[in-house]
Amino acid sequence: MKASTLSFRLAVLFVVAGMAMGIGMAASQNHAIMPAHAHLNLLGWVSLFLFGIYYERRPALDASRLARIQVWLWSAGTVVLTVAVAAIHLGYTAMDPVAALASLVVLAAILLFGYFVFRPAASAAPNPNMGITPAE
Ligand code: HEM
Predict the structure, then answer these.
(1) Where are the transmembrane segments (predicted)?
(2) Residue 103 pLDDT class (50, 70, 90 cuts)
(3) 93 falls within a domain
(4) Distance, CA 37 to ligand 1 centroid (Å)?
(5) For the chain, how many structural domains are there in total?
(6) Does the residue 58 lie in any domain?
(7) Domain annotation covers residue 128
């Protein structure tokens, strides 16, 4: 599977979970896990969707195993970070080291993405055929 497809699919799963969490908070009038909801939506939905757009515009990178690893690393870090942040805000402060570890996983994933962006490789250039087509 292409990295972009993986990103878009995981992003949709994350936003469904994030919205369910938001509805749960609103319905229960208990916003204690709001930071977990915000992280889940912004890391899992917004960022992942943006990665997908970047990969989709670079077909060679999109087909690479390393790009898929970046998406999985980011997603795994997001899941663990969300659960740990929610647990901490519900009083389970013992989850602090788990959140710290997950934050390092997410950091590693963004550094890998940064490597894709900064490396002087052909795969870093956008596909010129994927630009905006004028209306007829
Ligand atoms: C069904 C959809 C959603 C519902 C019902 C919902 C509900 C909520 C609720 C109840 C809060 C707590 C507000 C507070 O305590 O002040 C909140 C906060 C937040 N939500 Fe959502 N949300 C939804 C979707 C999203 C999405 C899609 C995103 C991001 C793309 C998002 C990002 C945030 C952020 C960043 C905060 C923290 C705001 C702050 O710091 O004051 N939410 N949401």
Answers:
(1) 36-55, 71-92, 98-118
(2) very high
(3) yes
(4) 7
(5) 1
(6) yes
(7) no
At 120 the pLDDT is 82
The tens digit of pLDDT for each residue in 46-73 reads 999 999 999 999 999 999 999 999 999 9
Q: Which residues approach ligand 1 with their CB closer than 6 A?
A: 15, 18-19, 22-23, 25-26, 31, 34, 37-38, 41-42, 45-46
Domain that holds residue 92: 3-24+32-122
Which of 14, 41, 50 to probe ligand 1 with, by most ligand atoms within 8 A of CB? 41
Q: Separation of 82 CA from ligand 1 center, angstroms?
A: 14
Residue 134 lies in a domain: no
Percentage, residues of the chain above pLDDT 70:
90
